[in-house]
């Protein structure tokens, strides 16, 4: 056990018996704390930080990338809202169905991903994630209703303007680095969304001939949800790519945002690999190359992961989390928070007295 606590008073403990694997006390009596949580050491070297493990990165970094992706697609939605408002004032209603479909679909996508992401972060924090002082349980409870606000609607938008081209396109990835080309990523997501939509549309047509259009839609409701999700993911990916291709101030900022953009797209490709393979958008070999490139991107983002999170500039007061403190002083603060629990007001809680 390396996370136990023992408090003694007026007891002398020899330094060689103080179990100082993480924190230490020098011969001069100076206390040296462990900076960050660490795990196993290899070859007798220093222990690795938890965030250096690829299993942690593969769960956390796509969420970080999603945060930026949703921020940028949100900026695009603001522009879309302004545009449709001006059109409505001029009695122009042609874009209204598209705007409704985009906003409804993106609302469903972003709220679901965010709610699941909060829960994933809680799991990544281990047992500490359960604590109210971590801020995660309250954040989850407050945010989850957003998945139901204004109705649990998934709106399908079928656009076949480029149907002939996309139905025939073939992914040209030959090496892992090819997945860094924005055009390759967008083409793969466009082809996937379109081919899924066309496939479902054909089934709806067949069912409708035997019964009615309403029964056709009802019978394929689950498939329609998947198609709508694919379309909304295409929107987010394309808007993220559009943003990082613009001028971005700050030395090295654009490069890091490009890495996050690629992580977002390729992590979705990995998660929904079955869709891309079943629709013939990519080959199994190309899917493996995407995973290879994804691992490389994790290592590139790792040195700047903390800065990318801090860039949102949320204060400690706003976050309300002892785990997400800016100064990193986690464990002493956890200890202080534990003493605030009324159960710790007495040595033996009332429920255990006889």
UniProtKB/TrEMBL annotation:
<dbReference type="InterPro" id="IPR046373">
    <property type="entry name" value="Acyl-CoA_Oxase/DH_mid-dom_sf"/>
</dbReference>
<dbReference type="GO" id="GO:0033540">
    <property type="term" value="P:fatty acid beta-oxidation using acyl-CoA oxidase"/>
</dbReference>
<keyword id="KW-0443">Lipid metabolism</keyword>
<feature type="domain" description="Acyl-CoA oxidase C-terminal">
    <location>
        <begin position="182"/>
        <end position="352"/>
    </location>
</feature>
<dbReference type="InterPro" id="IPR012258">
    <property type="entry name" value="Acyl-CoA_oxidase"/>
</dbReference>
<dbReference type="Pfam" id="PF01756">
    <property type="entry name" value="ACOX"/>
</dbReference>
<protein>
    <recommendedName>
        <fullName>Acyl-CoA oxidase C-terminal domain-containing protein</fullName>
    </recommendedName>
</protein>
<dbReference type="GO" id="GO:0071949">
    <property type="term" value="F:FAD binding"/>
</dbReference>
<feature type="domain" description="Acyl-CoA oxidase C-alpha1">
    <location>
        <begin position="36"/>
        <end position="163"/>
    </location>
</feature>
<dbReference type="InterPro" id="IPR036250">
    <property type="entry name" value="AcylCo_DH-like_C"/>
</dbReference>
<dbReference type="InterPro" id="IPR002655">
    <property type="entry name" value="Acyl-CoA_oxidase_C"/>
</dbReference>
<keyword id="KW-0285">Flavoprotein</keyword>
<keyword id="KW-0276">Fatty acid metabolism</keyword>
<keyword id="KW-0560">Oxidoreductase</keyword>
<dbReference type="Pfam" id="PF22924">
    <property type="entry name" value="ACOX_C_alpha1"/>
</dbReference>
<comment type="similarity">
    <text>Belongs to the acyl-CoA oxidase family.</text>
</comment>
<dbReference type="GO" id="GO:0003997">
    <property type="term" value="F:acyl-CoA oxidase activity"/>
</dbReference>
<dbReference type="InterPro" id="IPR055060">
    <property type="entry name" value="ACOX_C_alpha1"/>
</dbReference>
<dbReference type="GO" id="GO:0005777">
    <property type="term" value="C:peroxisome"/>
</dbReference>
<dbReference type="GO" id="GO:0005504">
    <property type="term" value="F:fatty acid binding"/>
</dbReference>
<dbReference type="GO" id="GO:0001676">
    <property type="term" value="P:long-chain fatty acid metabolic process"/>
</dbReference>
<keyword id="KW-0274">FAD</keyword>
<keyword id="KW-0576">Peroxisome</keyword>
<dbReference type="GO" id="GO:0055088">
    <property type="term" value="P:lipid homeostasis"/>
</dbReference>
């Amino acid at each position: 056990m390396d996370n136990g606590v023992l408090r003694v008073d007026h007891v002398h403990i020899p330094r060689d018996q103080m179990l100082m694997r993480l924190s230490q006390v020098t011969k001069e009596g100076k206390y040296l704390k462990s900076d960050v949580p660490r795990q196993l050491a290899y070859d007798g070297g220093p222990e690795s930080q938890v965030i250096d493990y690829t299993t942690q990165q593969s769960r956390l970094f796509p969420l970080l990338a999603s945060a930026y992706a949703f921020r940028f697609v949100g900026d695009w939605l603001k522009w879309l809202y302004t545009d449709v408002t001006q059109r409505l004032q001029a009695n122009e209603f042609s874009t209204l169905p598209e705007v409704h479909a985009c906003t409804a679909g993106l609302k469903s996508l972003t709220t679901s991903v965010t709610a699941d992401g909060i829960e994933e972060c809680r799991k990544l924090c281990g047992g500490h994630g359960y604590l109210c002082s971590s801020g995660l349980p309250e954040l989850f409870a407050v945010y989850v209703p957003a998945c139901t606000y204004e109705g649990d609607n998934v709106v399908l938008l079928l656009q076949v303007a480029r149907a002939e081209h996309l139905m025939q396109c073939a992914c040209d990835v030959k090496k892992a680095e090819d997945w860094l080309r924005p055009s390759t990523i967008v083409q793969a997501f466009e082809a996937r969304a379109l081919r899924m939509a066309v496939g479902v549309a054909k089934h709806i047509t067949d069912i409708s001939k035997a019964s009615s259009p309403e029964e056709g839609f009802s019978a394929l409701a689950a498939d329609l949800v998947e198609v709508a999700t694919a379309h909304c993911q295409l929107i987010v990916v394309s808007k993220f790519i559009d943003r990082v291709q613009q001028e971005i101030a700050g030395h090295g900022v654009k490069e890091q945002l490009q890495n996050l953009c690629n992580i977002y797209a390729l992590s979705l490709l990995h998660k929904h690999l079955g869709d891309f393979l079943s629709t013939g958008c990519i080959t199994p070999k190309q899917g493996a190359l995407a995973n290879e490139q994804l691992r490389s991107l994790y290592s590139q983002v790792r040195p700047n992961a903390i800065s990318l999170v801090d860039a949102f500039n949320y204060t400690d007061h706003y976050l309300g989390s002892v785990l997400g403190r800016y100064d990193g002083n986690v464990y002493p603060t956890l200890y202080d928070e534990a003493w605030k629990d009324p159960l710790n007001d007495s040595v033996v809680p009332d429920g255990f007295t006889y």
